[in-house]
Design a protein that fits this description.
Protein name: Ribulose-phosphate 3-epimerase
Strand order of the largest sheet: 1-8-7-6-5-4-3-2
Largest sheet: 8 strands, parallel
Pathway: Carbohydrate degradation
Helix content: 25-40%
GO molecular function: D-ribulose-phosphate 3-epimerase activity; metal ion binding
Number of domains: 1
Number of helices: 8
Low-confidence stretches: 227-232
Shape: globular
Bound molecules: D-xylitol-5-phosphate, zinc ion
CATH superfamily: Aldolase class I
Radius of gyration: 16 Å
Distance between the termini: 15 Å
Keywords: Carbohydrate metabolism, Cobalt, Isomerase, Manganese, Metal-binding, Zinc
Order of helices and strands: EHEHEHEHEEHEHEHH
CATH architecture: Alpha-Beta Barrel
CATH class: Alpha Beta
Number of strands: 8
CATH topology: TIM Barrel
InterPro entries: Aldolase_TIM, Ribul_P_3_epim, Ribul_P_3_epim-like, RibuloseP-bd_barrel
Amino acid sequence: MSPLKCCINPSILSADFVNLEAELARIANADAVHVDVMDNHFVPNLTIGLPVVERLQKVSPVPLDAHLMIADADRWAPLYADAGLDSVTFHVEAANAPIKLARELRARGAKAGMALRPGTPVEPYLDLLTELDMLLIMTVEPGFGGQSFLDVMLPKIRRARAAVEGSGANVAIQVDGGITEETITRAAEAGANVFVAGSAVYGKPSPEEAIESLRANGQLAFTGTTLISNNA
Ligand code: DX5
Ligand code: ZN
């Protein structure tokens, strides 16, 4: 089993959209930057699309982790992989052929991520784990930053972690929504190891210090409650 470490991926949804290059420079110690793409169809909000993400990819000091909250993922997600992103996550609720899509993302050089809305159970998708590099369990209803962490998602994270261990696949478990210095501990104890944080990073005077502090809390809780060896 390859070792897992805890990653902090700040969400630029909470950044200043007029100064994105400068905002990226403020999180240079992050593991990746989480880029929330919303189309006002899959979620009731609109952010940025492919042309802006392509520019971010060119200037970012850290890898890009795209979270596509868009309809017709089968059509659009591969184009984000073509842009050279490290990781592309589509919502299973928006994909007609998730296995085909995950394979296509990998074939185009990106890590394949699959996201589940809070109301979407993980069990029907456990056989897909070997096709994925990351499973994103939403801990708020997607669409907006600054919402409260849904503790009712903790059992789903635990079941997903157990299934990943059972499968032997090297799948990261990402959580997104309401992650703070406090909630990260519960999410990590349940088995998440990649943490998206928008307001808890960009809402702080020093985003770099916030990242270090979140990572330390997450790593401590994750290491203490899983059987996986850590290299961080
Ligand atoms: C919500 C987005 C999140 C959001 C998280 O739909 O997917 O990435 O930016 O923001 P916080 O950390 O403030 O909950
Ligand atoms: Zn997100």
